[in-house]
Amino acid sequence: MNRNSVVEPSEIALDEGIFLVKLARKAIETYITNGVIIDPPKDTSEKLLRPGMAFVTIGSYSRNRELRGCIGFLQPITPLVKTVIHAAIAAATEDPRFPPLSRNELGDIVIEVSVLSTPKPIRNIDEIAVGKHGLLIYRGWYSGTLLPQVPVEYCWNRETFLAESCLKAGFDPDCWLDKKTRIYVYEARIFYEKSPLGEITEKNLEDEFKVRCKWLLD
């Protein structure tokens, strides 16, 4: 495999997902405690040194995993391992919706890493699958995205997912009906801590959507 080819989510094994979640936590803890940005570990696999896209989400465990920060990168500019490091630190310190994470919170957070595929344009909204796709909305110089797990968490249908993505981009909720709006979809593999410093596993969004949002599918 070309070392410059983008890492796609389908290539990530569970042990590599676990590695990335542990790395994200270490990046956050080291930066919050010492103000130091860690380097990729020496045992990082060649695959994770290829360019990749990822988001890191931080939740407050004692508040039912309430969002505490989420930032990522949708361009494969840096090696995936560095993308995760920088996204983790940014989610902890630069998300404008929240104050920077404090040292006292480190034992109460849970970490989630979403490894993203290359966004692809769609021509028809019927191509959007809730529980599978994230959305990226573009119009002019402005854009916004919502990860695949967001509509599953709130049991949104396709139209609500589109409307919320438009709002995230700063547009009216019906912006997806405008021919000037470009809509892209992407997929993700999502690895997360079940509890702070606890077991790390992978989310199955399609199954979760069927169970959590059964009423929507009936």
UniProtKB/TrEMBL annotation:
<feature type="domain" description="AMMECR1">
    <location>
        <begin position="15"/>
        <end position="202"/>
    </location>
</feature>
<protein>
    <recommendedName>
        <fullName>Protein ENU08_03425</fullName>
    </recommendedName>
</protein>
<dbReference type="InterPro" id="IPR002733">
    <property type="entry name" value="AMMECR1_domain"/>
</dbReference>
<dbReference type="InterPro" id="IPR023472">
    <property type="entry name" value="Uncharacterised_MJ0810"/>
</dbReference>
<dbReference type="InterPro" id="IPR027485">
    <property type="entry name" value="AMMECR1_N"/>
</dbReference>
<dbReference type="InterPro" id="IPR027623">
    <property type="entry name" value="AmmeMemoSam_A"/>
</dbReference>
<dbReference type="Pfam" id="PF01871">
    <property type="entry name" value="AMMECR1"/>
</dbReference>
<dbReference type="InterPro" id="IPR023473">
    <property type="entry name" value="AMMECR1"/>
</dbReference>
<dbReference type="InterPro" id="IPR036071">
    <property type="entry name" value="AMMECR1_dom_sf"/>
</dbReference>
